Amino acid sequence: MSRELADSLRWSDDGTDLFLGLTDGLSESKFDSASALPNWTRRHLVAHVAANADALCNLVHWAATGEVTPMYSSAEERAASIEQGATLSGPELNRWAHAAASKLGGMMGGLSESQWSAEVTTAQGRVVRATEIPWMRAREVYVHSVDLRLGAEFAELPEAFLHALSEDVIRKRGEVPDVEADLPQRVAWLTGRPSGLDDAPDLGPWL
């Protein structure tokens, strides 16, 4: 299926609302509970999503001004930011996540048609147009909403988003086995999340 900029912007907004709605008001003990990601608590996950918004703001700035501003100065800086964020209290984490998301949304809303066509480089070294930025954010907030283990499931995410995500993951992973499953299960499997597909091969981590 084709994915339009308007789709990505809508999914970015709606996924952000879902993620922040799940984490707002969590007790400290619930922040300290394990997420679905190995060795990460929910506190780590919220710090990661907040830092991701800050990093994507760098790409929006790049697109808007032409000034080269990488997402992260280094992989080490990225990891250190998450670890430092995981030491914050719940209210501090939520304030950071909300502020970073709001800034990113505002900056994306200010891009002109020509700026959306500007090329930027992702943290993985891929050169993409700025129109990929809201899609990158939508993937983060929707998938990590499920990773929070607070009730969100792939089956509850927009079907069109799941189709787009499935195509995106397959494009990046390369050829994958043909596994019979419904769309939410297949997307969970493709993204390396628990899927209930006991006979499907392990594809390894993604995102």
Automatic annotation (TrEMBL):
One example of the protein's molecular function in GO is: metal ion binding
Gene3D superfamilies, sorted: dinb family like domain
Q: Which UniProt keywords apply?
A: Isomerase, Pyruvate
Q: Which Pfam families match?
A: MDMPI_N
Name all Mycothiol-dependent maleylpyruvate isomerase metal-binding domain ranges.
Answer: 16-149
The family database entries (InterPro entries) matched by this protein are listed as: DinB/YfiT-like, Maleyloyr_isom, MDMPI_metal-binding
Name the domain of life this protein comes from: Bacteria
**Protein name as catalogued:** Maleylpyruvate isomerase family mycothiol-dependent enzyme
UniProt organism field? Gordonia mangrovi
